[in-house]
Structures are given as C-alpha cells and as structure tokens.
Amino acid sequence: MDIKSHTELSILRAEKQLAELDSKRNELINRIKELRESLPKQRPPSHDAGD
C-alpha cells in the first residue's frame, strides 16, 4: 500500500473515531443535563465561603 492511500485510510479511521466520540460526548452532556434537572434546586454556593 502506498503512502497516499495509507494516509487517506488513517484519516478516514480518525474521522470515524472522532464522530463516535462526538456522539458519546453529546450523550454524556444530555445525561448530565438530565441529572442536573432531577436534582433538588439549591442556591449556588457563595464564592467567599471557606476562605
């Protein structure tokens, strides 16, 4: 296999992995949103606490 087709194959493989990771990332983002919405509402912690 020549360098050019090997490189193209590597790029295709990388793009496929990137697409898979991107969809996993979106799934995680959605899951986090769901979890946040299911949590009881709390007031945000103050920034100067514990100094």
Concise overview:
The protein has 51 residues and is mainly alpha-helical.
Note down, in words, how this protein is organized:
By secondary structure, this protein is an all-alpha fold. The protein is 71% helix and 0% strand. It contains 1 helix and no strands. The chain has one helix at 3-38. The longest helix is centred in the middle third of the chain and has 36 residues, at 3-38. It is elongated.
> How much is the radius of gyration in Å?
21 Å
Distance between the termini: 63 Å
Q: How would you classify the helix and strand content by structural class?
A: mainly alpha
Q: Give the biggest beta sheet.
A: none
Coiled coil: 11-38
Keywords: Coiled coil
Features:
mainly alpha, 0% strand, coiled coil
Describe the secondary-structure layout:
Blueprint: H1 3-38
